[in-house]
User: Fold this.
Amino acid sequence: MEELGCEIISLNTTPNGLFPHTPEPVPENLQQLCTTVKTAKADIGFACDPDADRLAIVSETGEPIGEEYTLALAVRFMLSKRPGVVVVNASTTRAVDDIAAEFNSQVIRTKVGEIHVAKKMKEVKAVIGGEGNGGVILPDVHLGRDAPVATALTLQHLLEFGGTISQLHRNLPQYQMIKKKIEIGDSDPEQLLQKIRQKYQHEKLDEVDGLKILYPESWVHLRKSNTEPIIRIIAEARNKEKAASLCDQIIHDIQQKM
Assistant:
């Protein structure tokens, strides 16, 4: 980043394998970065995971903008330069679809997992893609999630925008996401998903990965775990209350079917 002309304040960069906090770059683990950005009056803060494939962004006010918006920012920047196909996974924010629509571009969704996104990107010659956990894939560089690439895209976007990162974030479509899970014990997850599918058969459904129920300004996505007796539930809506309500309704539905 210094070669890009940035003045850097580094945190926890000693490569000794010791982490001062849980290294996943999600808001609850970014307190130190948020405080430093605010007290140092920095323009932006970045945090990545240990293998540098996921990026979290902190605004100049010391607030995380949310890992979903790392990809959303990158998508808007790339499509403003070169409209084309975008590939994301089934759980990624709808903000990406709204942004793509501004540039008459198509969004293709895949199963959750970097390999599924990357394969589809190669197949359709996508301009950009990734996952909503802060993972950006820019095929002009390589077909893998890359936090340094996402950092460079964000900095260039911010430079050309001419405002602050919080202003840039506010210009994006705004959604709130809630993630929950329910333990299902010995119940068959496929049978449970089938029962939920039958209950919501008159709604718009997407079954590219588990079951996703789509509403005009919200959605809820159910996926079984391959390693634990749980079903993961992700919901997105214009506000947290609605997203939480969608999750809670599905949890209630599953409990009724167990």
Remarks:
- The longest helix spans residues 240-257.
- The chain has three domains: 2-58, 68-170, 176-257.
- The chain has a mean pLDDT of 96.
